[in-house]
Amino acid sequence: MTGFMLILRRDLHLAMRQGMDSLMVVMFFVIAVVLFPFGVGPESNILARIAPGVIWVAALLAAMLSLERLFQTDYEDGSLELLALQPIALEITVMAKVVAHWLTTGLPLIVAAPLLAVLMNLPDEGFVILIVALVLGTPTLSLIGAIGAALILGSRRGGILLSLLVLPLYIPVLIFGVSAVDAVISGFEAKAQLLILGGIFFAALPLCPWVGAAALRQALD
Amino acid sequence: MVKFTGTDLVCYRGERTVFQGLTFGLGGGEAVMLRGANGSGKSSLLRLMAGLGRPLSGVIGWQGQSIADDPEAHNARLHYIGHHDPVKPVLTVAENLGFWAALRSPKEDTNAVMAALERLGIGHLAGVPGRFLSAGQKRRVNLARVLASSADLWLLDEPQTALDKAAEHSFFDAIAEHRSNGGMVVMSSHADKNLADAMEIDLGKFQQEARSGGAATGTKQEVQA
User: Fold this and answer.
1) CB atoms A14 and B90 under 8 Å
2) ipTM over 0.95
3) Closest Cβ opposite residue A6 in set B54, B83, B99
4) Are the C-beta atoms of residues B167 and B3 closer than 8 Å to each other?
């Protein structure tokens, strides 16, 4: 088995044994979205209007919530040091951890999203595009987040620092993710937005593990 | 033949020169004990040797080639024991070790893991989750990781911490066997017990040179420039 698969399997294994972490992220996502009908009021047309934005923002925050622990626990118990000393490029290690993060947080968010879309009275035609946009967008969130998670290692109050570092970088994903859903609901095609989301993903795919690995080396030095 | 070398190393951390002018050379079967007071740079030197940090100046080389040129090849030939014992609380001892062993050898070898555990007297703990282990047992697990897969160079940062006499004895046996097979060991320790016919590097000496006046400020300016 390759190093990538071994690290991925180990992280999934760890996430499964500590099942609460994943579950809490999804619970946070659900509760954050559920707060909006209470705050905004139950008028269904207003909820339908803001549904894509609310779901995307909540997904963003939920994904970020779990990022802090992406490298933190391994850093604290010395595992990260050892991972950096294996005959595997550190970039591959970062990539494996990002994939594990997406599988344990991004994917459950996508599964929960349709339920919340019903709650927010999202028009029927928006469901498929919401899922497609999330599938294209959430891996980017994990990728960009890995840079932030690597940069905050060793700092106190890492969680807040992480949100300051990462949330601004999430804005493009948010804009095109929401506008893809809005476009389809208003009867237009969303091809352009999806292409841009895909473009951002393919730019982040090689770039983020590389930057994240550099940040890890910095943290371990 | 001298394989693992360090030439004129300068280590700079936390705005001070930890040591400078340090040179070493290590051949197959040889061992180095690092001595020195707290903060004299034993751990820093071991981290430089592992490639976790870069020296401010000087070169660490393997058979004449700088280790910075090919970090992964260097990683493949070393085992490192640091201050922490990376034992995941939710994984069993065997799972913990199996992961690290598998990263190094393409085929998973549970026998090697079990043999390493037996050797350090914790074979009976193989199925126990990491969270139930004591500090000494965690340290034994970490040392068993080194025994479970082969590597030429062992970098050990105070490996006896939290170990009892019996475990220390079996680990020193393992070191002797490693050396007789042509392996190399660099070990820092405060204990009196020495490795058999090992060289000794007293980091205190290199530190004093660094502290005396001009040399230290000279290196500082280099950093700023």
Assistant:
1) yes
2) no
3) B99
4) no
Best mutation target, B54, B75, B108, to test chain A (most A CBs within 10 A): B75
Q: Using alpha carbons, list the distances in angstroms from residue A154 to A76, A151, B88, B170.
A: 9, 9, 19, 35
**Between β-strands B31-35 and B199-202, what pairing exists: parallel, antiparallel or unpaired?**
parallel
Q: Which residues of A touch chain B, with CB atoms under 8 Å apart? A: 1, 3, 6-7, 10, 13-14, 17-18, 74, 76-79, 81-82, 84-89, 220-221
From first to last of the 225 residues of chain B, give the pLDDT tens digit.
Answer: 788 999 999 998 888 888 888 999 999 999 999 998 888 889 999 999 999 988 999 999 999 899 999 999 999 999 999 999 999 999 999 999 999 999 987 666 678 889 999 999 999 999 999 999 999 999 999 999 999 988 999 999 999 888 898 999 999 999 999 999 999 999 998 887 778 888 888 888 887 554 554 444 333 333 343
